[in-house]
Design a protein that fits this description.
This protein is of the alpha+beta class and about 100 residues long. The chain is about 20% helix and about 10% strand. The longest helix is centred in the middle third of the chain and has 8 residues, at about 50-55.
Length: about 100
């Protein structure tokens, strides 16, 4: 992959300590965005646990290059548990929210 804008090395170095434990499900393939603020690309990386995903995000290797992300693209980052939860457990934070005005 290309070097960082300041010539500091590969943007893929952030993943090296975790490569054996992660799976790239999809990365920057063609996509159709249906809603929300526009993003430039999308990547889905599977981690074996939420704890390992947080460890990656907080790792010195990723922290050292993360400031390049907003310079190169419009993006959001999120972590989410995999698999479908029971219906009553879906989006619990919305159960007490007032409906939005149209």
């Amino acid at each position: 992959m290309s070097a960082t804008p300041d010539g500091g090395g590969s943007l893929m170095n952030w993943k090296k300590p975790f490569s054996a434990k992660t799976k790239s499900v999809a990365a920057y393939t063609p996509f159709e965005q249906l809603e929300g603020d526009p993003v430039d690309g999308a990547a889905v990386v599977e981690f074996p646990s939420m704890e390992l995903a947080k460890a990656w995000f907080n790792s010195p290797a990723y922290r050292a290059i993360m400031h390049h992300r907003p310079q190169g693209a419009h993006y959001i980052g999120l972590l989410m548990e995999g698999g479908p939860p029971q219906v009553e457990l879906r989006m619990p934070h919305t159960k007490t929210r007032k409906p939005r005005s149209a």
